[in-house]
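Extended Data, record RNI-like protein
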Amino acid sequence: MPVASQNLSSGDSPYTDFCNYGLSTCNDAGHLVRLDFTQFGLFCDFPLQEIQEFQYLTEISFQSNSVTGDISQIGSALVHLAANLTTLDLSDNFLTGQFSGQLQDASTSDPQTQSFSPFCYLADGALVFLNFQINNITGEIPNCLFAAGSSLKALLANSNGLTGTIPTIPKSSQLESLAFSGNHLDGPIPASLSNATYLTTFAAQNNYLSGTIPESLGSLPLLTSLRLSNNSLTGALPSTLAGVTTLTELDVSLNHLSLLPDVWWSSSPGLSSSSLTYAAINGNSFKGPFPAAFSTAPNLTIFYMDDNAFSGPFPNPSANQAFFPSLRVFNASHNQLTGPLPEAFGQINFFQAVNATSLLGASIRYFGVADNELTGTLPAYLSASTLPQIFTFSIELQGNNFSCPIPQGMEYLNLTCVDRAAIAPVQPSTVENMGNAPSPSSLQTGTTSVESNTSQESAQSGSGLSSGAKAGIAIAVVVGVVGIATALAFCLGRRSKKVGGWQRESLEQDFGAYPNERTNTIELQEGRGYFQ
């Protein structure tokens, strides 16, 4: 261990005074009770032998170093502290080994105790907080870790290689936080999780969990964060979760959910009593109308519902009805929504400059409804002249059927529009003609791009097609078929099991919690609705 200070008056060789070393502390008797090497830049093995010299430790932290070692051996080296050790933080290192490995302590003669994981032995003692996320630890989560009488309140095991299933939770559980994200866990979410009545956070995204989301999770009175994205969950989004008024973060994106109970459709009462600030239901198989209940959540700032099969128009709230009052990031792209964009969006803070005290950390606004079946005239609140200059907007509307002309001030959207007046109705004069498709000259699409004003100089000068033109059409058809196949392969690839890309922390400054490192990120580019 490094030398921190020297006591030259002792006459002995220099030694480390841990009582005055960083955040490490001693009690009044001079015994070291807190050993803190957080972010010390250590490149070494875990000090298995040296740690046993300390008998009174209650807190140990080696967080964010490059410490190596076997997790089972580390646990075994700490069992002598079981009566006192409350906090153990080994996160963000290079630890390996089996978390479920057996106790390796020759001084313990009880064969039943030796068959346990050493961490079960610690949890049966005083251990309250265990954090070993961001390592290379494998194996299963031992059932005894949550056994009756366990003192454990928080287990943070994100970003490892854990396998197996989530253990059953007993009724006497004191658990407050469980985090298993980024592992290889499979099987169902245990309904017994509702026995952890003190639970505030359950994070299990980026695993291989299957089955349904238990309705019993809605009975957790203190639940604030539920993160289940990028698994293989099926069935319904439980209606009971709508009644958890403490819930601030709900992320069930990138699963195979298909059912939304009635409580999620209705705007009355909706989620008017909810504390939700972040909701992500994107990347599932939900069908039906717009889930209007979310629009009533008073604190919802980020809402992702893209990549589903929602259809029909946006809700049309009454004058005194809440409609996304706190929204700043909204994505409903890649659905089947129809009708015009509602004027109600223009009445909320999203497109309005609010008082400066509410703008901290919220300088970016994202609005995505691309690739739906929306029609009508673009509303005035999208005009560059009306958008608050204090925000940076990213607006994606492409892939819809908005009417021409594109209003002045909306050229930055780079949209095409449909001139419906130019679409000539086909009226066959005879029964025989009804089976013939209209020629290109009899049916005009009236598509106009606001990116460039294409002149009419390229109009055909003759009525017939040359052989070169026919060959060009044939080539275009082949290219089109290849393009469709490529697009289909890309779409199928979007639902691959593990999703890379941005880390949550890199986006939270402006967008808050971002759903599961998705690769289809917001593109702040010229020509894609970027306006600053």
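Summary. The longest helix spans residues 467-493.
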